[in-house]
Design goal:
Elements lengths: L1 H11 L12 E8 L6 E7 L2 E6 L5 E6 L5 E7 L12 H14 L5 E6 L5 E5 L4 E5 L5 E3 L1 E2 L2 H8 L10 E6 L5 E6 L4 E9 L2 E3 L5 E5 L2 E2 L10 E2 L4 E5 L2 E6 L4 E5 L6 E6 L1 H4 L13 E7 L2 E6 L14 E6 L10
Parallel strand pairs: 1-5, 10-14
Antiparallel strand pairs: 1-24, 2-3, 3-4, 4-5, 6-7, 7-8, 8-9, 11-12, 12-13, 13-14, 13-15, 16-17, 18-19, 19-20, 20-21, 22-23, 23-24
Length: about 325
């Protein structure tokens, strides 16, 4: 009886926000010129900053970062029809139905690049990945159908608009990580096998569900745990966790959390807050000096009147990203 009462007490206890060391904001950069707005992915490729919007199917963006307000320069894409990846008919049809309202069918949600300068863009609505060579020609990666099959067997990719939300690749360009957004969220990986990207033993690294309490500044109810983007730096996997307003360092092989850092203090000041109960951070890029975090503000205007997408620059934690404290 005592054990049962304790269990009930635990279930009745509200989910509390976790406390993590805070990242310090160094600068912020409104982005001008994204046709569809909705900045949803960032990557630094051979010294250039690139971005994608989940409203644009036919272009990605090179960001001119020479001035405090950045300018997005469109780079056209010419893509063949998306391949079949194993998503069920119902999920695919929901994507098609919403695309006229969203402004695009492909729903680009992340961008990454390898050391050779190849860029990789993940399409949420098709659970596919676009390869953009340095010369600009674009094609769809050939991905083993086992990826989607294993993800769905683990409880991921079951709901429309809750599919792949982030992507990262190792510098060698032979291993990709993908983030399943929510309900359930998870991490998956693919290895390049000649011309096909396939699972080795398993594509699924981790899968989890449950509530996430937003930072107290939002005064919002708990939401489903989520991933918004991924980055690889110095052999570690970094996750952008939108509802928690944090960046976490994880073990690439297992997804185990090694360390997390909050960016809520500076991102949720009164002037930078949006009239939304949800997190807005969608894009992540990590380097030795810090992290770039991009905000997909949708149709929301910040309290200070800023209506454009914004990219924040946070300093690396004391001791660097590999520090234990």
């Amino acid at each position: 009886m005592r054990r049962a009462l304790l269990a009930l007490q635990v279930l009745a206890t509200p989910v509390m926000a976790e406390t993590w060391p805070a990242l310090v904001l160094q600068s912020e950069h409104p982005v001008e010129g994204m046709r569809g707005g909705n900045l949803s992915g960032l990557a630094v490729c051979q010294g250039e900053m690139w971005a994608v919007s989940d409203r644009d199917d036919d272009q990605i963006y090179r960001l001119d970062t020479r001035y405090p307000e950045w300018l997005a320069e469109a780079v056209s894409l010419h893509l063949p029809q998306p391949p079949k990846t194993g998503l069920p008919w119902g999920v695919r049809m929901m994507g098609k139905a919403i695309s006229p309202l969203r402004g695009g069918d492909l729903d680009f949600e992340g961008i990454t690049c390898d050391a050779a300068g190849n860029r990789y863009v993940v399409s949420e609505s098709h659970a596919g990945v676009v390869l953009i060579a340095p010369q600009g020609n674009a094609s769809w990666l050939k991905i083993d159908a086992g990826l989607v099959r294993q993800a769905r067997a683990s409880g991921m990719l079951l709901h429309f608009n809750a599919l792949f939300e982030g992507i990262a690749i190792n510098p060698q360009g032979n291993q990709i990580w993908l983030a399943a957004e929510r309900e359930r969220r998870g991490l998956l990986t693919l290895h390049k096998k000649q011309s096909v990207w396939a699972c080795e033993d398993s594509c699924v690294i981790m899968s989890e569900a449950g509530p996430q309490q937003p930072p107290p500044q939002l005064k919002a109810k708990s939401q489903a745990k989520d991933f918004a983007d991924l980055a690889v730096f110095e052999g570690k996997l970094f996750t952008l966790e939108r509802m928690a307003y944090r960046v976490c360092r994880r073990t690439p092989a297992t997804g185990h959390v090694e360390r997390c850092w909050s960016f809520a203090n500076d991102a949720l000041t009164a002037a930078r807050r949006y009239a939304s109960a949800y997190g807005n951070a969608e894009a992540l890029s990590v380097d030795a000096q810090g992290a770039w975090i991009g905000v997909d503000n949708g149709n929301h205007v910040r309290a200070d009147g800023e209506a454009r997408p914004v990219v924040y620059r946070f300093a690396a934690p004391p001791g660097g990203w590999g520090a234990r404290s």
